Amino acid sequence: MRREDRIDPPLAFACVAMVAYGLWLRMVDLNFPRGMSWDEHHFVLNARSYLAGVPDLNDHPPLGKLIIAAAIELLGDGSVAWRIAPLLFGCANIALVGLLARWATGERRAFYVGAALAALDGFLIAYSRSALLDGMLACLCLATVWTAVRVRTALGIALASLLLGSACAIKYSAVVFFPILAWAALSLPRPALALPALLLAPPTYVGWFSLGLHLARQRTGVAAVIAETQRLYRHHAGLTDWKHPYLSHWYEWFLPTRPIPMRADPWSEGRVRVLNSIGNPLLWWLVDLAVLVTIAAACVALVLAFRKRELPALLGRLRRIGDTPVKRVLLLAAFAAPLLPWLIAKRDSYMNHYLPAYVFGIVLVATLFDAALRRFRTAAFVALLVVGQVAFFYSPIWGQLPLTRSGVYARLFVQSWRVQPGTP
Amino acid sequence: MHSIAARWVTVALWLALAPLLISVGMRRGFREGAITEVDITLVAADAQGLACSLEEKPWGYACEYRAGGRERQPDGTLVPALTLDRLDLLVPELFAQAAVRDVVANNTARGALQERFVAKCRVRVLQRVRGVQRRFSATAAFEAPSSAWLVWPLGCTAHPDRG
Prior knowledge:
Chain A is mainly α. Chain A is built from 19 helices and 2 strands. The radius of gyration of chain B is 21 Å and the shape is elongated.
């Protein structure tokens, strides 16, 4: 084993403990509440529609609901069946963040750190405990990028294209990852072989969409899928009311100002069981910092190259995605891609739209932690433990553990975080 | 901290601290002696309609009735109330609280007797009272005996019910 492959046992133990607790928080009382909460009805009711051969009335492509429908078909129509698929995808997210962090640094230690950070973050936990699409979408986006950068053959690009097409069949906003996939394809030694593999993404999308239309006993085929996609696009483009109390602009997501209060169920003795999509605030702000550091590093490299008149050479280096700085720029691009539509569009936006970007932000944090652990071993180790402690403190509002009102307020210490579920 | 032993000790302390951090705010809000906040859901008509019946006088507070609602007690001040969290309370002189009194007077004057509002009260929890019978409107019968928390209001504010 290489020396740098050895991981500090206390660090490994702490990371494993964080992952174990994160898994428990995702799974504990998954069937609670037995009814639907927040937006679950959109997806569960339409999953039932597919099983009944009735058209889907939801405004997203069918794959996410087909996956929920498959779980209902296998396990029966209950709250565990509704949430089991998001749970499994949510668990996969932990591994994928770790794997991408390892790819980005080349260090096994980064896998542990990345997985631990992803495991104990409430944003990811909330979407692992709910019959919603965003956790599944984030998972397929992570898997697309990881496959594209890790399997450095045309086959890898083909697999990544299948994953991207599937991601788009959950929410078509995943199409923003296409340029990153193309970048990975162009960076292969023989891109001419890989580029045709990119063409697998659209038929995958059409295939999943057609399956949904077929199950709903509607017209199938390319033309039908294009027509449905256009209809969905027009519908989304028209959602510009900005009236819902949970709405937030893209620039508010970095604070955040409006985490989504998904559930608040009264419990015994005046306590309440809350599920809130607020992440670990410390990790959240570390994501902001990691993004800023990466942008700053990229800008410095650009300015230096410009001064030395080496800009073409620098841009040429972007094809070498095996180089550590280029890996970070690629992760930054993966972070920025899901944000871009929200910078341009005026459509109503919610914090869940930040999830596919945020997971790549966590990968960036893991790479920074890894670099810090190399240079400032003790300080970085303690900092990671502090992130874990903040997560422990917040965990009751992620795992729906009973809390008093003051316990909830102690965690949601910003006034705008305290919007009650069900507020019109 | 540079030695492996020191790092293990740090991790052990970290783990030991975890249950304490997780359990902040988990303790039952309703235990005797606790001071906590409650959101009581009310309408102006409750000022005339809510009543309870109880044989005992816990902490010296009496319900308006005893003997299952058959006998009136002149010193009855306890008001049965329900929180947004569906917690049953007995609150002495709830409608004498300035904020609650003002909303009731205002809504009564407007004829909005059924307009719901929330009395957000800071209360001291006195004790769990068993065998209390409650009535939720002037024309309704008393319900079967159940239990409720006797709380003393330290101060209330009133807010529109957004639920």
